[in-house]
Amino acid sequence: VSNGTNANITGLPAGLTGVFNVDVFVISGTPTASGTFNYTITITGGCAPATATGSITVNPNAAISLSSATNTGQQSICVNSSIVNITYAATNATSVTVAGLPNGVTGNYSNGIFTIKGLPSATGTFNYTVTATSNCASAVMNGNITVNELPVATITSSLGTTISKGDISVLTATGGSSYLWTGTDIQGSNSNASIEVRPRQTTTYTVKVTNISGCTTEKSITINVNEDLKLIPNNIITPNGDGKNDFWVIKNIDYYPNNKVSVFDRAGRKVYGSSSYKNDWDGTYAGAPLAEAAYFYVIDMGNGYGLIRGTINIIRDKR
User: Distance between CA atoms of 193 and 177, rounded to whole angstroms?
Assistant: First the structure.
């Protein structure tokens, strides 16, 4: 600046200032606003005021923010399950990229929105970084995706995969912290690691196994049932009220609902008869206890399945 003793400036962006010192006018600072700013320097103190003009263009920095739900940036999921889509809103960005995602998950930038989506195929914790780039400063945001393993389930059968009709097999699953079985003829609860099954026909049992991460898998086993069911009548009853052998039990009789059971004493007198026997005879006749002795039975399995004959002994406590 020559022939002037003072100078001032107008039109600068916020963050910039101008200083006049010994014929030099210096504009300096860090602009805090973006845009195009036309400024004017006015010089006074000479014969007549003089002016000088100029223009400063301040390009904006990139900005980025999470636009999907807050918890989407911190996800814990099971391998081979789709993540909840994660979206970021980017402004003043010329490009947006991501690094650190698991295999199977990708990012795509379109119309100011960066979307992360996919189905991870690798397990572990993945810390990712999203970077929005502009002509000036870039902006970054971080997140993480934890991909949990599926349980490795196994099933074993105490009697193998081929059993006789009427047999009870114990199925045991491993690999999880909770279990849920489906299938017919499950004895008792279906939510234990081990269950008892007594299938009437070849049956497939499936267990849903869940691990501590909440991930699930299913495993199945087929139990083949041979049609070689045999009735197995106990040959003794001791009806003394101790809970052991108090009733005459015929194993597998429930598979022959049309059965007829008859019991005779040595003289041939019929002392007991029942249709659809339920394993509930306690060695009485007309409400009175029968004497200790051997008795003879005839079991008609019904529907033409044939007859079974044998001896049942009643033993009473003599105390």
Answer: 9
Measure the CA angle with vertex 227, ends 156 and 166; round to 5°: 55
User: What are 63's two structure tokens?
Assistant: 């900005």
| CA–CA distances in Å: residue 163 to residues 80, 142, 180, 227 | 37, 58, 23, 9
CA dihedral sign of residues 280, 239, 261, 164: positive
Are 271 and 282 contacting, i.e. CB atoms less than 8 angstroms apart?
no
Among 80, 219, 218, 91, residue whose Cα is nearest residue 147: 80
Residue 99: is it exposed, middle or buried by C-beta count within 10 angstroms (0-12/13-18/19+)? exposed
**164 CB-side CA count, 13 A:** 9
d(CA 52, CA 56): 14
Q: Can you give the pLDDT of all 319 residues of the chain as single tens digits?
A: 556 678 889 999 999 999 988 778 899 999 888 889 999 988 887 677 888 899 998 888 899 999 999 999 999 999 999 999 999 999 999 999 999 999 999 999 999 999 999 999 999 999 999 999 998 889 999 999 999 999 999 999 999 999 988 889 999 999 999 999 999 999 999 999 999 999 989 999 999 999 999 999 999 999 999 877 778 899 999 998 888 999 999 999 988 899 999 999 999 999 999 999 999 999 999 999 999 999 999 999 888 888 999 999 999 876 5
Pairing of strands 307-314, 236-237: parallel
Residues found in the chain = 319
Which residues lie across from 40 on neighbouring strands?
A: 10, 53
Q: How many CA atoms lie within 13 A of 125 on its CB side?
A: 4
The CATH code of the domain at 63-148 is 2.60.40.10
- 154-226 folds as Immunoglobulin-like (2.60.40)
Q: Where are the domains of the chain?
A: 6-58, 63-148, 154-226, 232-314
The residue among 221, 246, 218, 220 whose CA lies nearest residue 234 is 246
